[in-house]
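Hi L., both proteins are below.
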Amino acid sequence: MILELVAVNAHYGNVPVLREIFLGVEAGEVVSILGANGAGKSTLLNVICGILTEKEGKVFFQGERIDHLLPEKIVRRGISQCPEGRRVFPEMTTWENLVLGSQTRRDKGNIKEDLQKMFALFPVLQQRIDQLAGTLSGGEQQMLAIARSLMSRPILLLLDEPSLGLSPILVREIYRIIQELRNRGTTILLVEQNVRKALNVSDRGYILESGRITIEDSSQQLLANPKVKQSYLGR
């Protein structure tokens, strides 16, 4: 198992956010974390990345504990997060944002090759290469944020609400790219409110409600689950 969370709790001050989380991701899998806004999904990713320090429990990556490491050391281990809200650097160009994503790498000679791979996966970024990131459309910024995360050559990619605020056409494009990454064998932990889209590209999913995992199953079974249908699929 490439990622494992064991009895993880997290809180902000005295306010509990995550309670007794047990979760695992196998190499090559796409696993979805699903739930309503405020369920604790983004907090879960921040625990994995070492951003949230108010936590208890164990986080293992490739068999080694990482819950005590600083965020930059976790990135060097091979975990990259594409955060909610994109968070590109608006005053930097598309090129500069992409190169920034590779700063933790030691194999500097391969960066140019990976930039070409990003342009093949996201052709619009090559067209916007010298454009300030802040002037890109919302969909283009999301593509840039994902590409920037991939530039670190992650072993595990964390995607936080990649469809948030995008039009239906752009959501379809973003999920086409996620499907392509899956086909390439990229291991992804995907946080989403768009339950149907997420389950259609993932192998398994966890339903998070009020900081607790209430359902865990294959994506196919979750799509057929009456509770999931009623609560998250609108039927």
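That was the first. Here is the second:
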Amino acid sequence: MGLRFEVRSSPEAGQPVDVDLAILPDAAAIDHINGQIQGGENVSVVEGGEIPAIEKPAQGSVIRHVVRLLPKQDGIFIVTAAVNVDLGNDSITRTFTIPLIVGDGLPELAAKSEVADAAPAAGTGLKSH
């Protein structure tokens, strides 16, 4: 079982963003697939939180699903997709994580890396006594 995703546009705080999911069944005898998408404290699932049940998907097929997310602030967040698969007498749940970078991500990390990358100007070296 695999999952691929594509964020349709650059996520911005307060603006909904669509994420295309592709679920890739890889077993020959799957009876049933369904799932659920969950955001977190800073990302709400607006639409598409439930992946509807698919009966007997063909091996190698692609199950497409769209989820609409609403990030509440800039940062780096994780959205989870729990996909349930029924195979005969077995039931398996695979959990996938989808990273979502909203706005500038974590501005304090960008500020630190800019300081670390700055080279001293000529003639401003420190002298020890």
